[in-house]
Design goal:
Oligomer: single chain
CATH superfamily of the largest domain: Response regulator
CATH class of the largest domain: Alpha Beta
Structural class: alpha/beta
CATH architecture of the largest domain: 3-Layer(aba) Sandwich
Strand order of the largest sheet: 4-3-5-6-7-13
CATH topology of the largest domain: Rossmann fold
Number of strands: 14
Largest sheet: 6 strands, parallel
Order of helices and strands: HHHEEEHEHEHEEHEHEHEHEEHEE
Radius of gyration: 25 Å
Length: about 350
């Protein structure tokens, strides 16, 4: 029998209200499972979109949780085996994403991935930067688990014997055995240089970021290994370390151009913009005059800039994988020392032509 709806308010809200009343009166399946979207469509004579919106409203209000592949359940009545072990997860980031959002694009995408994994299960995350945590500004909350995003070595060591399940995202120090999910930065840099060498480049610079970071040092190792494979020599001046506080890198990029560098490997959207400005200031076009290779960053803000190449990473996927790993640890699985590697994917922005060497202003 169908349930007639009125026309004076959005249909999905009416369906939502009917389902809320059913939940409050206990008129749901004994298991706590809601009708499927198909069943809602048939009962209320509405579209699949309307049914989906109604269920999403219940999820947003915290009345219902969605279990992938199993359906939607009234909160706290889902199968015991599926109830979340992790209701509150602390997420500590290397960079303060609130103070430096333009430099923390990767961290923000990781956080989105963690949220996407935990919120449908009725959980939440408590966000904090490593700097604030090290200063003792701890929130007054009991965590069921911790995810450390690109943590400095000191923080890794501090939590290596944590009493709550803990997982790292990023390169792990050799003295720490916590399970982690990491980008293969050595392989990433190696493949990037291989790609540029195959285009005919032999003078390739890399702006690697802060080399106090373990992952950045591995990136440099991959860069050097590719040069050695091709028996090419490199200048130490081409390996540019850029600290977080260093604002003006234009003079250093200009010196690289004057030294005949024909390709740049750059990490971070903020740095990419600076390099781009120097190249255009020299009247150089990408890729006709110089190649610009972008590493480990969200490129959505750069789509209007044609003809670059880069490694596109699924940072949100890293966040989801880290939460999955944390859940396994929380359930008592022995995951100590295991590392789950996310291999980078090489994609071209557009066909990149060979560049001329020895460019001068």
């Amino acid at each position: 029998m169908t349930a007639a709806l009125q026309k004076h308010s959005p249909l999905y809200l009416q369906v939502r209200d009917r389902l809320i009343k059913r939940i409050e009166e206990g008129r749901v399946d004994p298991s706590g499972k809601l009708p499927s979207e198909h069943e809602i469509c048939r009962e209320f004579q509405v579209s699949r979109t309307t049914a989906r919106l109604a269920v999403e409203e219940l999820i947003e209000q915290g009345l219902v949780v969605r279990l992938p592949g199993k359906g939607s359940y009234v909160r706290d009545r889902q199968p015991a085996s599926e109830r979340p072990v992790l209701r509150t997860v602390g997420v500590i980031t290397e960079i303060d994403v609130e103070l430096h959002p333009s430099r923390a694009t990767g961290c923000l995408m990781v956080i989105q991935g963690i949220r996407a994994a935990i919120e449908p299960l009725g959980g939440q995350i408590i966000l904090m930067s490593a700097e604030r945590q090290q200063k003792g500004a701890m929130p007054n909350v009991e965590w069921d688990g911790l995810i450390l995003v690109s943590p400095p070595v000191s923080l890794q060591r501090r939590f290596k014997n944590a009493t709550v399940p803990t997982v790292l995202i990023g390169s792990r120090h050799e003295s720490v055995t916590l399970p982690s999910v990491a980008l293969h930065t050595f392989q990433m840099a190696f493949e990037a240089v291989e790609y540029l060498v195959n285009l005919g480049h032999s003078r390739i610079a890399v702006l690697a970021g802060d080399l106090k970071n373990v992952g950045r040092r591995k990136l440099i190792q991959g860069y050097e290994a590719a040069f050695l494979k091709h028996t090419l020599s490199w200048s130490e001046e081409w390996k540019v370390e850029v600290g977080e506080e260093e604002e003006d890198i234009e003079p250093r990029v200009a010196r690289l151009i004057d030294d005949g560098v024909t390709a740049f490997m750059v990490t971070g959207e903020f740095r990419i913009s600076q390099v781009w400005d120097v190249l255009t200031g020299y009247g150089l076009q990408v890729p006709q005059d110089v190649s610009l290779f972008i590493l480990e960053q969200d490129l959505s803000k750069l789509k209007w800039r044609p003809r670059y190449s880069g490694m596109y990473h699924d940072h949100a996927g890293l966040g989801r994988k880290a939460f999955e790993l944390l859940s396994r640890v929380a359930k008592g699985e022995d995951m100590d020392g295991q590392v789950y590697i996310e291999i980078p994917v090489l994609r071209e922005g557009e066909t990149v032509g060979k560049c001329r060497g020895g460019m001068k202003k």
